[in-house]
């Protein structure tokens, strides 16, 4: 019998348990950090879904070192967005805010970008789209990807969303 997301019963819950375990406490643990480093390299090459998968590069707020992590880019109405599946306390969110939104995306080429935070009242349709294109995030967001917009409105303030703007000439 299929689950809500169309998979056979049991397979998705196991995968979601693994996803939650890798990020228990809302932070990536050792194995998740190692996997993220590897996936960031893969995403940066641009060989797999270059319009959807990228490596976000942002300067660390305390070390000043450039940190690279894999992200899924959600597209909606001709705009591109990044969503923090772990919520407000995700390290990359705090780093982006400290950097004034300046970052880079690598997806076969390096793209200098500015990330502008989206108002919580406008996040619901973006969150819904994000869950449609980022299966790994579904374990961390407490709403089914096919839920009505009102359900996404209810949780929108807990999940930062950033609009991606390409910076010319950088």
Number of helices: 5
Strand fraction: 15-25%
**Secondary-structure element order, as H and E?**
HHEEEEHEEHHE
Question: How is the main sheet built?
Answer: 7 strands, antiparallel
Category by helix and strand content: alpha+beta
- Apparent shape: globular
Stretches where pLDDT is under 50 for at least 5 consecutive residues are 1-12
CA radius of gyration is 16 Å
Please tally the β strands and state the result. 7
Compute the separation of the termini in Å: 51 Å
Query: What do the pLDDT scores average to?
Result: 84
Describe the structure.
This protein is an alpha+beta fold and 170 residues long. Helices cover 31% and strands 24% of the residues. The chain is built from five helices and seven strands. The protein has helices at residues 11-22, 30-45, 91-98, 124-133, 149-155; strands at 53-59, 66-72, 74-76, 79-83, 102-106, 110-117, 161-166. It is globular.
Topology:
Blueprint: H1 11-22, H2 30-45, E1 53-59, E2 66-72, E3 74-76, E4 79-83, H3 91-98, E5 102-106, E6 110-117, H4 124-133, H5 149-155, E7 161-166
Antiparallel strand pairs: 1-2, 1-5, 3-4, 4-7, 5-6, 6-7
Helix pairs in contact: 4-5
